[in-house]
Protein: LuxR family transcriptional regulator
Organism: Roseivirga seohaensis subsp. aquiponti
Amino acid sequence: MIRVLIVDDHQVVIDGISSILEDDASIKVVDSALTGADALRKLEFCAVDVLLLDINMPEMDGIEVVRQLHKKGIKVNVLILTMHNNAQFTKQLIELGVQGCILKNSGKKELIFAINEVSQGRRIYSEDVTESLFDSLEKTQNAVDQVQLTKREVEIIKLIASELNTNEIAEQLFISSHTVDTHRKNILSKLGVKNLAGLVKFAYENQLV
Amino acid sequence: MIRVLIVDDHQVVIDGISSILEDDASIKVVDSALTGADALRKLEFCAVDVLLLDINMPEMDGIEVVRQLHKKGIKVNVLILTMHNNAQFTKQLIELGVQGCILKNSGKKELIFAINEVSQGRRIYSEDVTESLFDSLEKTQNAVDQVQLTKREVEIIKLIASELNTNEIAEQLFISSHTVDTHRKNILSKLGVKNLAGLVKFAYENQLV
DNA sequence: ATTATTCTCACTATTTATGGGTATTTACTT
DNA sequence: AAGTAAATACCCATAAATAGTGAGAATAAT
């Protein structure tokens, strides 16, 4: 028997999902909450296997709820319900260790299947979601080929990104610090960024780290 | 009929894969190459639907081959063959727009299926691979919770990462630049990093950007 | 009500980074 | 042989960041 707690700011959604899950003998909706705060409260006293969590909620959104769960040391399998399919968002969820994420327009079968998987500690991300994650990862590249950086410049970017200053880089490469300075200037102008921060950003977005 | 070009630095692997693919009527191995450079040469004159590409090769590795393909404007569906299952690596592949990636110890069926999918322009990443990608994404978080940053500090980190300097941040937040300076100092010491570069790195690794 | 944290501001001093030049040597291309 | 790109090096000047120290005011927590 899988005990589920439903969290959504709309009672109709809660009722709808409840009625769907009622049909399944292996799942029991033990409680529900209309706010994140309420969910956290109930999770402290109520044994729950799967937390069915809406993302878009006023005041405390789903992500914040998960963060609080971590802070309080409450361990529960989380299945996120979301309407949109944003990649940046998905990334965050995965990084938070959320077990699963399905779109709100998923069918009854998908929902029940997902709850079962998540309750076993397995990961479930609907195809649309992973697809959008891949898409977002794809975007980043390209820039490094657009900008004509020399080998030496790439080398120096990496060293800058690893927190070395001009002198340290000069020592490591056995060249004058003046030369490193020149390279820095050229890099900044080639990348069209204002300062070190922009440089490190570029390094990150182009996997030079 | 799917035309395949096999690239691997071991002739035995090429022969092995060839013999597997021979059994399938819809796939034809048109040629093979033992080095990345040779593969690039052959791709210019030979019509190929799917490039079956080994990653670990001396001199020019698979990733570099894909980069060169982009540079030369050669468009071909790439299916990567890999032995290990490294996440950082997978990320790079996805970012390069590689259609698929399967482990060398995959079975015959998986391989043929993957080639078919990739030839249609669809994406195929074996489960192990995506799993490891998820794992790596999960690791990054935590740090932001470990370090006790205040709201203001997080706010300032974001502004620094977007290439604003101290004065610009002060203007934007309607506070003195001295205050921003103090925050910067506290942030650097809390994060235990040496300079701006380390700060921006932290921002990136913790999705504060 | 008291404590603790956070946010705020200031001063000095030093180190680093940035922006503007110029110039030489090497290696590769045509 | 001439031209070009890359790596090297130096100068000057200014802007910005880092380090150290101290301290008042607002807020949240107990």
